Amino acid sequence: MAISRNFYRMSANILYFTVVPLFYFLFTLTYQPFEMQEFLSVGQGYFTNNLIFTSLILFGVLVLSRMLLYLLRNTLDLNWTLYILWCSGEIVVTGLFWSILLGIEWAPAVPYFSVMTTCILYLAGITVFPYIIITQAIQLHVIGMAKQAPAQDEKTLIRFHDDQKRLKFIISSPAILYIEAEDNYVHIVHLDNGKIKDFSLRSSMRALEEVLSKHGMVRCHRSFFVNPDHVELVKKDVNGYALAQLDRSGLDPVPVSKKYYDSLSALL
Question: Is the pTM of this model over 0.85?
Fold first, then answer.
C-alpha cells in the first residue's frame, strides 16, 4: 500500500528534521539512556560537546534526506515497506557519520566497527520514538481529512498513470484548469482547496488524450488541454494569436491554435 502524498509535503519533512534531532538531544541530555553518557564522553569528559555534534550531524542528514524526498515527490511512489527502509537508511547514514567522529576519539581503545555498530543501535533505540509519533500524527491527519472531505462522484475522478503505468495522481475533473506538455512531462494545473497547484507527471499528451477527452477536457493546442468550464472567454492578442482566458487570477492565458479555435469557442 502506497503512503499518502502528505508524507512528501514540505511541512511533514520539516517535522522530521526538526523534531527528531531535538528529541534526541533533549532525551539523551535528560535521561542518558543505554550507555550514552559514557559512550559520548569517550573517557575524556566530552559528553556535552559530542552530544551537540551528533545532534547537528543527525539534523544535517535528515535535512538532506527530507529535501531529496520532497524534490522527488512527483517521481517516487513509496509503499510502507520502502518508506520504513528510507527512514532506516537515515539512521544508518547518520550512524556512519557518528562513527567517524567517535571512532577517532575512541581509537585505539575500541575497534572502529564496534563503535559504528553501537552508534547505529543507540541512535535507532532513541529516535524510533519520534519517528513513530510523527508518522502516526501525519497518518491520523490524513484519515481526519478524508473523513471531512466531501464525497466525490466516482465518475468525475481522473486517474493519472505515468509512462510506467503506475498510478500517480487522482483528481476530480472539475478541479483541473488546464494541462500542458513539456518535454517528457505533463503539468496538471489544478485547484486544491482553492489554491492553484501544479502536479508534474512523466507521460505524454498522446497517452492521456483518451481519458482527458472522456472527462470533458478539450484540446486547444498541440501542447495544451483545457477545462472549458474554467474558460471565461477566448480572445486574440495584438498579433492575432488566440488565447483562452481562465477564471482564476494569476494564470497566464492558455494558447489556442487555429485548428481548435472553433471547437473551443462553440463550447463557451
Answer: no
